Amino acid sequence: MQTRIQYMDSLRAIAILGVLLLHAATPYVVLYDKIAVFDWQTGIVYNALSRWCVPIFLMISGALLLGRKEEPLGTFFKKRANKILLPFIAWSIIYYAWATYMWNPGYSLKEFLIMFFNNQIYYHLWYFYALIGIYLLAPVFNIFVNHASKQMIGYVVVLWIVFYGIFRYYSYIVSNEFTLFFPLSEYIGFFLLGYYLAKFELSAKWRISIYLLGIVGAVETIWRTMALSEQQGQFSGYAYSYSSPNVIIMSIALFVFVKYWVNRKVASGSYQTTKITKLIGQTSFGVYLVHAMILDKVRPYFFEGNELFVKPLFAIPLQVVIILVISTIIVWLIQKIPYLNRLI
Question: What spatial distance separates the first Cα and last Cα of the chain, rounded to whole Å?
Fold first, then answer.
């Protein structure tokens, strides 16, 4: 259990860094044909190589929530509601006020409710909607994994990858409606996948194959995005989909690599989770919630419109560092304040 916690801390820290990298790079990728080609391609590469961030978070949730002792629905949902619903509502209100302050003066309860129920308040809050949908299915999947064989769990994971990943992703090559027949949400597969990879061991041969496929997935994400953008004459985020096969395999490769690297170090007695890794991991949820406001204030120092003040090659990682430091300090302080700490 201790080794599992240690590699989960590392995965959380890596995942939130991926989120910050993705969001810092995103404004550049939409500037196709408006900035220098190399600068645009730099944004594409940074963004593409961080697409695993949300899948990793979902996989962590599945690894830690599934396989537990079965409990009454009321008990399960009460525990999750305290951790999810209050922050969800509170940060929706905060970001509605923030968006109104930044770009659209004037408050309206009606407008807030419409935006709230349609996932339109702020770009990163969509994660709550996905998480709530997954949690509604979690008790069912918990019973499933507690009684299903490794083969059966793997079978469902493969079905999800085939229907939600491969068939849908390659529909631009061969038109198909196969995804209409798969009766699970887009993100539940990552939840189950996280449990599978955490629970079961993989042989060295399988791990090497996964790492190689992860590299192929990274190259595919970069190349496909550039190729489709050139073909369409504008930025195309088609290959950026979290459930595309290229992103799925990148996510699997990173999860597996971190798990086995950390566990091997722990077994040899040469690994100790650093304080900074623990801090970033323990504040990751809060950092996810607050970082968008920090980014809004930091971004204008690096570019405005189509004018770049600092080359993206340096600007993007520099923004990540600045946002991480400021957000972590804010979250750390909030965690020390009674009642407010329930929001993160």
Answer: 25
The pLDDT tens digits of the residues spanning 148-171 come to 999 999 999 998 888 777 877 776
Count of alpha carbons within 13 angstroms of residue 53, beta-carbon side: 23
**What tokens appear for 19 in the block?**
């989120």
DSSP letter at 172?
G
Residues 6+ apart with CB under 8 A from 292: 23, 95, 122, 123, 124
Q: Which residues lie closer than 8 Å to 122 by C-beta, 6 or more apart?
A: 95, 96, 98, 99, 292
In the numeric block, the tokens 């995005």 are attached to 225
| 340, 332 Cβ separation under 8 angstroms | no
How many other C-beta atoms lie within 10 A of the C-beta of residue 278? 15
Residues 54, 242: Cα–Cα separation, whole Å: 8
Residue type, 48: A
Helix (H, G, I), strand (E, B) or coil at 303: strand
Burial of 12 (0-12, 13-18, 19+ CB in 10 A): buried
pLDDT tens profile 201-220: 999 999 999 999 999 999 99
| Residue/partner pairs of 272-281 with CB below 8 Å, 24 or more apart | 273/6, 273/9, 273/10, 277/9, 277/10, 277/13, 278/9, 279/328, 279/332, 280/12, 280/13, 280/16, 280/17, 280/324, 280/328, 281/8, 281/9, 281/10, 281/11, 281/12, 281/13, 281/16
Rounded-to-integer distance, Cα 137 and Cα 130, Å: 11
Entry pTM: 0.91
* Spatial separation of the C-alpha atoms in residues 19 and 186, rounded to whole Å: 19
Torsional class of 289: left (φ above 0), alpha (ψ -120 to 50), beta (otherwise): alpha
Please give the Cα distance from 62 to 55 (Å, whole number).
11
Burial of 37 (0-12, 13-18, 19+ CB in 10 A): exposed
Question: CB within 8 A of 19, min separation 6: which ones?
Answer: 50, 53, 54, 124, 288, 291
